[in-house]
Amino acid sequence: MHDSSTQRPHQDLNDCLWFDSLSQAPPCRPGVKGGLHTDIAIVGGGFTGLWTALFLAKLSPDLHITVFEAQHVGFGASGRNGGWLMGSLEGMDKLLANCSEEQKLRSLTELRSLIDQVKATLADEDIKCELAHGGAIFGGARFPAQARRAQDELKALHQLGFDNSDYRWLSAQESYARIAASGSCGGIYTPHVATLNPAKLVMGLASAVEQRGVVIYENSPVIAVEPGRLRTQQGEVIANKIVIATEGFTQHMPHLSRRLLPVQSGMVATEPLSSALWEQLGFQQREAYSDFSRLSTYLQRTADDRLIIGARGSYQFGGQVVSRFNNKDADFRRRAELKDALFPILRDSHLTHAWGGTLAVPRSFSPHIVVDKTAGISTAGGYLGEGVGASYLFAKTLAEILVTDSVEAAQWPWIKFGTLKDQLKPWESEPLPWLGFNATVTSYALEEWAYKRDRSKSIKTMTTWLANSIDSIIQHS
């Protein structure tokens, strides 16, 4: 296995609050030596890879399961995300569009129970990750147009099959009473969100799978995947089945090349805030909060009473993955500005951490599981930033397919069968992804500017039309 007494310095994670909060450095696991045979090889030591390993080990304890991580467990978005555990999937409308009513009801029931399933598994595995199940508010704030967009979204969720027990409207007064965001003008409340510390979750998962006999190799980049084998820099590994769980880190994976765009998201964290400030701010149940901005904001109150403010950020030309972030760049300044705009009483509160992570955006704009039974190669991912809960659900589905060949699991709308290249549409060649991403972000920023500065009705209408048009072109092309 590994020597748990060997400690790793985490210079690359010093700016990440989640890793700074660990009581001790994680163990430094050895790299693979090559010449290895395993029943199931999992490429990627993040949430998808580790949840899959856990479910496989529980379903079939005699399996020899091996995880190969290029850096160290939780190096990617799994250890650096915003800490939202959501009982939903990005792109649900697309996933459920062609489902029968029975399949749709089954899917919605599964999503409604997702957080409770995760909580039960964490209890069984004795994983402590500061989880707080306070729900979330997707609020209109800063300007009234956000409330109109929130009302449209609530209508769409109800049309999808959810009801008021899942997503309900809060008046401006109700929303502000729970989270005192500036300009609160109503919003959507859902109980299907919890918050947690993702680094503690991923480290707990790694420990749990190792206790069940799973072997994790770190510093072991996989450079090629073929049916029945994979190649690392240290040598060849023979595997009966292979799971690719690399999410945004797919640039060297031929099976997934150009099928997942790596997009960077970033967060900042305040110093611990006083109880007097929290009395004014709200978040008394540690609710998650997002204002209804197109720029995908996400906030949470941590267990040690900090406020985290995150928002989706940037895309590098050519799909380059970013692992180190400059906490002085414009994206991080905008998150600090968002803090002050939403909560002016925090203008004098210092920011102590700034970090980021790389998420994956599939061309379909909806997450997926693909199982190629002929090649023995599977993958799961494309979560669009909502992977904390989705990775649990998809890993459970994938494990059931791989071990039991479950007929029920095969009928979920998020699973596809066939080759990875056939089932996952590729993105266009550069510069189109770069141009499309930047045109989208620019249109969002223009709309924000028009409403924030309260420009004329015609300018507001024009910027909203532009943002809607670019969204439609990209998602339907």
Structure in words:
With 477 residues, the protein is an alpha/beta fold. It is built from 15 helices and 19 strands. The protein has helices at 17-20, 47-59, 77-80, 92-96, 101-112, 114-124, 145-160, 172-178, 198-211, 275-281, 330-342, 387-404, 420-423, 432-452, 457-476; strands spanning 36-43, 65-68, 84-86, 136-139, 168-170, 187-190, 193-195, 215-217, 222-226, 229-232, 235-244, 260-270, 288-291, 297-301, 307-314, 351-362, 368-372, 377-381, 415-417. Strands 1, 2, 8, 9, 10, 11, 17, 18 and 19 form a 9-stranded mixed β-sheet that branches. Strands 5-6-4-13 form a 4-stranded mixed β-sheet. A hairpin with a 5-residue loop joins strand 14 (297-301) and strand 15. The longest helix is centred in the last third of the chain and has 21 residues, at 432-452.
